[in-house]
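---------- Forwarded message ----------

FYI, see the DUF305 domain-containing protein record below. Original note from H. follows.
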Amino acid sequence: MPRIGSISLIVLLAALATACSSAPQTVTAPSSASTPSSMSGMDHSTMMPGMHETPYDALFIDSMIMHHEGAIVMARQALESAERPEIRQLAEAIISAQQNEIDQMRSWRAAWYPDLAPTAGMGMEMGPMMVADGPAPFDRRFIEAMIPHHEGAIAMARDALQRAERQEIRDLAQSIIAAQDAEIAQMRTWLKAWYGIEDTNK
């Protein structure tokens, strides 16, 4: 009987040792599933499909509409306050052209991005958005505000030529560059002829 009891005790101790040696494996196995690499994998699979980058073309549209609206505000100021007919004529051309472009961009946005909330735009420098008060003649202040304003539109348009997805946006960008480059050249000529001032932004 003592011999059998010793054998039973040895078997029992062996069984306990085996259980203890396997216990860490049962504890550590689940923890390996929660390592940083595994968690990052889970994040990518569950979060990435729901994360959508705002389309560039939508950002361009939102920025350019806002920018054009600023030009129209300044042009309407010119219709009320400009002394020279050349400035009033330019103001009328700006209002007509840029309102048409605003209408076109709004139409595109409604068609292409019907569910997209308004964005903050491209975040690029836009230039002045109104003609500031000051002692200088209004016509000069208008020119000195509209030149850098146009330069802001041209910078955005050149960016769109490189990054826009839709041909319609690239075509509009090219049109903006051509029209506003010509208007800047004309305003620089007036600035020098009327006030003897070389545009410092050249």
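H. also flagged this: Residues 56-195 form a domain with the Ferritin fold (CATH 1.20.1260.10).
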